[in-house]
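User: Here's a chain of 112 residues. Predict its fold as tokens.
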Amino acid sequence: MKNNDWKSRLNIVYSTNPDFRYEEEEKEEVATPEKRQQKLRVSIEKKGRGGKTVTVVSGFTGSEDNLKELGKLLKTKCGVGGSVKDGDILIQGEFRQRIIDLLKEEGYSQTK
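Assistant: Prediction complete.
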């Protein structure tokens, strides 16, 4: 079966060459260091968010899946919504101290 997924070819210009093959760049998986080696920073932001307060967890190094998993854990434990964007975890509301405590319980000892 031919791989005919158009979403993987979005930003590629059309070619009339019948032998042309779409080449996709392989993304290298970044190895996630141990939890105690992660230097996470927790901050509160209001700018550019329509006056809404957001708690931002930044500094995570590792794979996107592990980042999303940590974001899901924090959102569940805080009982609020949020998202993972550009390597940062955004949690709706002011939960700075609670998130720091949760991260330290999970083994992220270098959290500020």
